[in-house]
Design brief:
Structural class: alpha+beta
CATH topology of the largest domain: Thrombin, subunit H
Number of helices: 7
Largest sheet: 6 strands, antiparallel, barrel
Mean pLDDT: 86
Distance between the termini: 105 Å
Strand content: 35-45%
Helix content: 10-25%
Shape: elongated
Number of strands: 20
Low-confidence stretches: none
CATH class of the largest domain: Mainly Beta
Order of helices and strands: HHEEEHEEEEEEEEEHEHEHEEEEHEE
Length: about 350
Amino acid sequence: MNSLRYVLISLVITVIPLFGIAKQPDYRQFKTVDEENNIEVFKRASPSVVHITNSRLVRTFYSLNPQEVPQGSGTGFIWSAEGFIVTNYHVIQQANRVTVTLQDGTSYNARAVGLDPDKDLAVLKIEAPSAELTPISIGDSSLLEVGRKVIAIGNPFGLDTTMTVGVVSALGREIESISQRTIRDVIQTDAAINPGNSGGPLLNSLGQLVGVNTAIYSPTGASSGIGFAIPVNTVKRIVPELIAYGRVQTPILGITRIPQPEYYRELWGVDGVIILDVIAGTSPERLGMRGLRRVPTGKIQLGDVIVEIDGQPVANEDDYASIMEQHRPGDIVTVRTLRDNQTREYEIELQPPINR
């Protein structure tokens, strides 16, 4: 009996190290694959993320001397080693002074070199040594799919360099810009985006920029799991033009459009873009396109109303502007209009914008 007991005890002592209490891993050494990716992306991209603060000069009732008061803050990222910073237009709107703070805490006064309220984008310039600037890596938003991981880095509520992780929730969304223009092909994400994240980068799992965080959908103003980002392919098209010209180089058709278009469309019961006048020396004038005119009775008579451009329907000014953004000066477009209940077509060469 004692021999059997000895054998059993020996077996237990032998088996416990093999199948019993395993050695706990060292947390300092242990990381999941996803954690490793998150850490790598943050280390790679965070030096490119900047904190933006803006202030305004205001004059109080009790003093004639203007006082500089903080107006808000947001996020941006380094576009190039020349000191160009990309952010949202609404982050710096109406600011008299803008300050950009790098990750190392160094601050620089910034000036706006290009603004696009229609896409809620702005480009700033700081005079900083190129050695201190780490441009962000640029990706391709056309490769995104619903369910792919995305990472947002920003300064929510003024908390510097905060990272949140989520997925692409939807693609092809539409949101309204500060100029009340529709921004199309917007990325929807559940990565937490809060006030202060605006203008910050949305990154893929390679640490590449795939969008610019611009808005949240929330009744409280805090993250509710629905955030929006302007796709980087839109940003890549717009930012070089903002740097070179200060504005987007959307071509013009050679017409002037009627003010208060919604009122007059309802008044006349028409859909499309009502032409106020044609610009002298342009294709519309040479081809006989006509704007509004006053008839002998004193009434205003409609001229051409644009209803289609290159096969794309035009119901309002928003449709018109979105189609024009797809073209460049020198392009030839087919414009279909209605005049006197008759359809007309014009082959029109687009002109460069008038830069002021």
